[in-house]
Amino acid sequence: MNLLKSSVLLLCAAGLAAQTFQAGAARRDITPREAVPMWGYGDRHDALSQGVDDPLYADALVIDAGGKKLAIVGLDLGRAPADPSLERIRERIKREAGIEYTLIGGSHTHHGPVLELKDEEGKGKGRFDAALRYYRQMEDAIAEAVIEANGKLQPAWMAAGSVQLEGFNVNRHTKLEPKPSDKELAVLRLDTAEGKPLAVVVNWAAHPTTLSSQVLKFSADYVGVLKQALSRETGAAAVFIQGAAGDQSIDRRKGGTKEYGEALAAEAVKLARSLAPAAVVKPSLEAREERFRFKPRVDLKNPIVSMMYEKAFFPELVRNYQDEYADGVRPRLSVALLNGEIAMVAGSGEFFSSHAVRLKERARMKHLFFFGYCNGYHQYFPTIEAAAEGGYGADPTVAPAAVGAGEEMMNQALLWLYQMQGRIRP
Predict the structure, then answer these.
(1) Does the predicted TM-score (pTM) go above 0.90?
(2) Which of 241, 223, 230 is nearest to 272 (CA)?
(3) Given this model, what pLDDT does residue 18 score?
(4) How far apart are CA 77 and CA 373, in angstroms?
(5) Partners of 370 in the beta sheet?
(6) Strand partners, 192
(7) Which of 24, 116, 187, 298 has the fewest CB atoms within 10 Å, measured from its CB?
(8) Residues of the chain with confidence (pLDDT) below 50
(9) Residues 17, 20, 21, 24, CA torsion sign
(10) pLDDT tens sequence across 55-99
């Protein structure tokens, strides 16, 4: 009889776990404590940082949907951590928090630290030891933010919504009309079961380049202003995830860092307040990730090509890219489907906006969030027509993956989403 009661209790507990939808949020400061090379502008070369304009943060949201966990992490960095750092972060949060799935994305601020150096002679060791020390500081802080968020898991209600926002971003690449642009501002709002604000995820596509390359101080750019304003107005933790911003600049008519960030925050607050979070009746989470391999369009082993890149940037940085692309350009595609209706598609690079716009149209999802600069960084992914037009962001010098790489990845994401919904058999 006792054995029977125990079995019933275990089955009831398993049933409750399968119906649970929880969320938790936390943040950590990830600002470098020492002078290190700055990421984002080639004309800086290997110039070291000269202080802090405003702090850089890792903002973590952990979602538990029916016993499966997803960590969404927004970083005030130019890109997601490089592979060695990413692997260490993922291994730790899996071990300590049981989190299998992660979407770790950089805001793409051009006033963050270089993340590509390695502890090897000629690749960082000796000249940039401070940067190598920073990587461990960064890894620990990101992992700790996720682990703390996991420790704060509580029953949550959720809502998602989006709006087409005019006058905030422009296509900086093409000279052809009409100029494609992703105007969608998307928000994921989570409240506690008591109705208190818990977290707001903001997804928007525009380069955070309001500050000059001559400024050698760390800054989150407009994203930092946006998050501060959003948290102040809503009382919720703010998580920003950059979109398909490869060809998207801010519309400078909105003003500089502060003005633009506050204007965008006002739109995000308005959207979040228009939503009505509700209990999740059937929580579920499905996720897949794959690394692709594309033939490079540039040969970094060629001494002349290598010399050109080293002059444009600096030798240690280029040598690490030589190592990374020795076996081809290998970007990650990560896809998550939350509660059967909210899709999150993440690519490890600067995807042109048409990739996101077309994917949203073809997927026909209730909500689709596109995360760029996520789970790694493999430079630009122009569309085929953009590669044919050429220009910065589309030429091989900064878009090394084979032409059509972005389309191939988007097709795979589309297939996975339809399979996850049971509309196409695997």
Answers:
(1) yes
(2) 230
(3) 55
(4) 10
(5) 345
(6) 156
(7) 298
(8) 1, 4, 6-16
(9) negative
(10) 999 999 999 999 999 999 999 999 999 999 999 999 999 999 999
28, amino acid identity? R
Determine contact, residues 322/305, Cβ cutoff 8 Å: no
CB within 8 Å of 275: residues ≥ 6 apart: 159, 160, 161, 187, 189
Q: Let me know if 422 is exposed, middle or buried by CB neighbors in 10 A (0-12, 13-18, 19+).
A: exposed
Structural tokens at position 308: 């050109």
Contact predicate 106/373, CB 8 Å: yes
The pair of three-digit structure tokens given for residue 389, joined into one six-digit string: 């037009």
Query: What is the domain partition of the chain in residue ranges?
Result: 20-292+327-420
Tell me how far apart the alpha carbons of residues 162 and 360 are, in angstroms, rounded to a whole number: 12
- Residue 19's pLDDT is 75
Phi and psi at residue 115, to the nearest 5°? -115, 0
Preceding amide of 178 cis, omega within 30? yes
Residues 6+ apart with CB under 8 A from 138: 30, 58, 81, 85, 115
Question: Which pLDDT does position 10 carry in this prediction?
Answer: 42
Q: What burial class does residue 4 get, using C-beta atoms within 10 Å of its C-beta: 0-12 exposed, 13-18 middle, 19+ buried? A: exposed
Give per-residue pLDDT as tens, 296-335. Answer: 999 988 999 899 999 999 999 999 999 999 999 999 999 9
